[in-house]
Amino acid sequence: MLFSRPLLNAYKKASTGITGLAVHPNPRAHLVNVYKSTLKSLELLPAHSAYRQATEVLTTQRLEVVEKTEDIYQIEATLAAGQIEEVIAQAEDEAKLVPEMEKWKAWEPLEVIPPKDQWKGFNQ
């Protein structure tokens, strides 16, 4: 069966098919807001933080994809990270992690230096 673009865009899915994960009524706008919020939160972390650098790159790339098109199916295909609702869950989890990383200060040197041969036994 062949669908025209307007008919395809008008399709609304009834279920994600994933237990506990409901269909989001406005996924694109929500995702843009979450990504922008995450990027703003990341500014609180030091620029040399590996976590900040990696998360900024990924979030910026995904934000560009989401802002480029309004077609949810194209967004899902381009991101290749599951259904849009799964992508939202990932983005929300990342947004929750940023303040925790700020609290943990993972970029600072260790308070207790591990013994020199701590992992030696695992190389054998």
TrEMBL record:
Main localization of the protein described in the UniProt heading: mitochondrion
GO annotations of cellular component type: mitochondrial inner membrane
Keywords: Electron transport, Membrane, Mitochondrion, Mitochondrion inner membrane, Respiratory chain, Transport
GO terms, biological process: respiratory electron transport chain
KW Iron (keyword) present: no
Highest taxon listed in the record's lineage: Eukaryota
One Pfam short name: ETC_C1_NDUFA5
Cleaved signal peptide residues: none
UniProt record similarity statement: Belongs to the complex I NDUFA5 subunit family.
Descriptive protein name: ETC complex I subunit conserved region-domain-containing protein
Organism whose genome encodes this protein: Piptocephalis cylindrospora
